[in-house]
């Protein structure tokens, strides 16, 4: 028998919701999934700007209240204050691809970069060959 995680792209848990009164089925994010949060939008804001944050978070805990809420943590494991509703989260598969905002320093074959959408605490030295 094939393990559940191999069949479902490495997901260990999945919550499938079936609406009894209709034909629709949808999946909700569960613990250990990677998500982006929606940006706060005012009325009459421009619609061609991105609606989701660049920073990627991991779901730390699922509160099965009505409606369901989620506690998040960033990539260093620090808990994000507040709870988020399902509508404020977007599941992402690309949790290991980041964009370089600015090159801060250069040393031989290493460069010190600032990542787009992340704080200064995430700045790091990377090899020049890793940048496209």
Description:
- The protein has 132 residues and is mostly beta strands.
- It has two domains: 4-91, Roll (SH3 type barrels), CATH 2.30.30; 100-130, no CATH class.
- It is 3% helix and 36% strand.
- It contains one helix and ten strands; from the N terminus they run H-E-E-E-E-E-E-E-E-E-E.
- The protein has one helix spanning 4-7; strands spanning 15-18, 25-28, 34-37, 57-63, 69-73, 84-85, 89-91, 100-107, 110-115, 124-127.
- The chain has a five-stranded antiparallel sheet, with no helix packed on it. The protein has a three-stranded antiparallel sheet with strand order 8-9-10, with no helix packed on it. Strands 1-2 form a two-stranded antiparallel sheet.
- Strand 1 (15-18) and strand 2 form a beta hairpin.
- The protein is elongated.
CATH architecture term of the largest domain: Roll
* Outline: elongated
* H-E order: HEEEEEEEEEE
Largest sheet: 5 strands, antiparallel
The tally of structural domains comes to 2
Alpha carbon gap, first and last residue: 41 Å
CATH class of the largest domain: Mainly Beta
Low-pLDDT stretches are: none
- Counting helices, strands and paired strands, the structural category is mainly beta
Helical run tally = 1
Radius of gyration: 18 Å
What CATH calls the topology of the largest domain is SH3 type barrels
Mean pLDDT across the residues is 77
């Amino acid at each position: 028998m094939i393990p559940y995680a191999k069949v479902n792209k490495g997901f260990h848990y999945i919550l499938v919701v079936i609406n009894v009164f209709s034909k629709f089925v949808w999946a909700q994010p569960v613990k250990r999934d990677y998500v982006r949060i929606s940006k706060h939008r005012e009325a009459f804001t421009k619609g061609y700007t991105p609606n989701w944050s660049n920073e990627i978070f991991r779901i730390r805990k699922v509160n099965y209240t009505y409606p369901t809420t989620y506690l998040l943590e960033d990539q260093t494991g620090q808990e994000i204050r507040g709870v988020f509703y399902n509508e404020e989260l977007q599941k992402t598969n690309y949790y290991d691809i980041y964009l370089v905002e600015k090159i801060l320093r250069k040393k031989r074959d290493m460069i010190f970069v600032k990542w787009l959408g992340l704080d200064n605490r995430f700045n790091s030295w990377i090899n020049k060959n890793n940048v496209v």
